[in-house]
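Suppose a classmate hands you a notebook page containing two proteins, each written out with its sequence and a corresponding row of structure tokens. How would you begin to make sense of it? This section walks through that situation. The first entry is reproduced here exactly as it would appear on such a page.
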Amino acid sequence: MITLSLERKQSLGFQFLLEEMQPNCIYGQELVKNAAPYTRDEGEALEQELNRLSLLVKGYEEHRSFWDSVELVLMQMKEVRGSLKRGAEVVLTDLELFELKHFLLQWEKLFALLKREDAVLLPGIAIEDTVGALDLLDPEKRRLPGFYIFDCYAEDLKQVRDEKRHLEVVLRQEHEEEKRELLLRRRQEAVGQEEEIQQRIRGEITEKLRPYLAQISANCRAVGQLDFLLQKAKLARVYGGICPQLTEAELKLAELRHPQMEQQLKKKDKCFTPISFEMRPGTSVITGANMGGKSVALRTLALNVVLAQSGFFVYAKEARVPLFDDICIVAEEYQSMQNGLSSFGGEIMQLQHAIQAQKQGFCLLIFDELARGTNPDEGASIVRAVVRYLKERSVIAIFATHYDHVAEFADSHYQVRGLSQVDLPQLEQEIRSAQGQKGIDVIAKYMNYGIYQVHEKEECPRDAIHICGLLGLEAELMDLILQEEENESGLCSA
């Protein structure tokens, strides 16, 4: 089962999208707050949710007035589940009966909308006709929002109220003290009788409502589903999502985007570079220099997989996604210092969790610069060993790494484009024209954060060394770096 803490949701950008949603009622708010991936056993339910969402997104604009009417009703829906729970055990109070009546009045309006000939039918959302329950709370069928125990509920109630009203009229006309005291005692007795009868009627109403409680509870769930679905549809329309196709094992995501990062970059007059992945069970490696966007690529991949498995549209041009039993992300930024562990120690604990998870089912495992917190020789050995270990397991595992001789053990290799397509002399000239730290901004402007699949024996770009030179690293030191590069030159295998 995939569990997402608030910290994980925030890091992926999932929480950002949830906070963009504006559910209309408490039932929808709860579903948004608790949004989580479906399990592999819930594949059929996920398919149905995605089908509903597709129908809604496709026809939303055409049926805009219909959905506006639905939302207006949803806004009036109040919390009644506590009253439903109490109603199964005790007699409900006037306030609780009032709240139930208010809910049922709004449900009657929603039920009428959903039963119209031109209504947009969303399969799988069960709606129950509870007019019988509403009639119990509104026997005169006035359909007014308040609740009152009417005389028509019981003949003896009418009689005692008539007696009370008669005594009140006589009291206003009587001035003799002894007679007034007698009338007041009689009125007090009538008030007591009235309350006893009303409590009896509350019990009778509650008892008659009990057969409807399960239906009303089901309607609460339906209200939440409708509200949640509407918010998903709006989110898909705002950010241009598409419906993912569920697969057995293939993971293919073309031109992936990350809405939160897009928004952040837009504020800086920059654009997000879409990325693409195509993987089957096994291991993949992303290489590239720092500043190249490997971590961004992994977060974008993880976010969209989580969205697909949670019943949302994904932000891509094409999306084929399998259902995972677990999604594990091993990265320094996720590790906890609460147990006094070093950065490296925290990573290893996460690695152990990932290894155990893959023994329990089909997993997506994401490793962002694994073992960066130890010396390079040992770190490279660890990463290569993990790649080899997971290669034949029931996983789709992807590693972002700067270590050499890792990709050669993986099933596929992706490379960040970086500065490979840039005119370096022109870039160098522009950096010289800039001053101080602005050189970094110039490099960032030209950095291509897209990724491409590396084919065997393809030469590997050396962006890290290019960046050192472009930023004016000491000439003598650069000469030594270039000498080392010549010693290590050859075909790309990292």
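The notebook's second entry, a different protein, reads as follows.
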Amino acid sequence: MPVNDPVGDMLTRLRNASRARHDKVVIPHSKLKTEIIRVLKDEGYVGEFTVHERTPQSEITVQLKYGPDRSSAITGIKRVSKPGLRRYVPVRDIPRVLDGLGIAVLSTSRGIMSDTEARKQNLGGELLCTVY
């Protein structure tokens, strides 16, 4: 079944799997999704991930992270820029998610990065999603 918003589908799979307390989730592969998951891993929201090269569609397996009381590391995850309404922000307008407790993921001219990294490099871009 074709998906109109692959990034939104990936975020929904992560949200549903973490709420259902699954240990891992399998997502169809793309370079953009891999980079978003890399940012989430670097920020501590997900564990390890592996890319499985298969035909006709490769897959990404993501290990989800939980706290000692089995509370999910991802409390909320929201798609901001959608295919029907793209949201671009300059560096001064990058939102602070929960006053710095969460992150915003941006697509910049230098690749996919978190909001803190984009501020350090003084870059704006497309605001893909927020995670807390």
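A careful reader of the second entry would note: DSSP finds three helices and eight strands in the chain.
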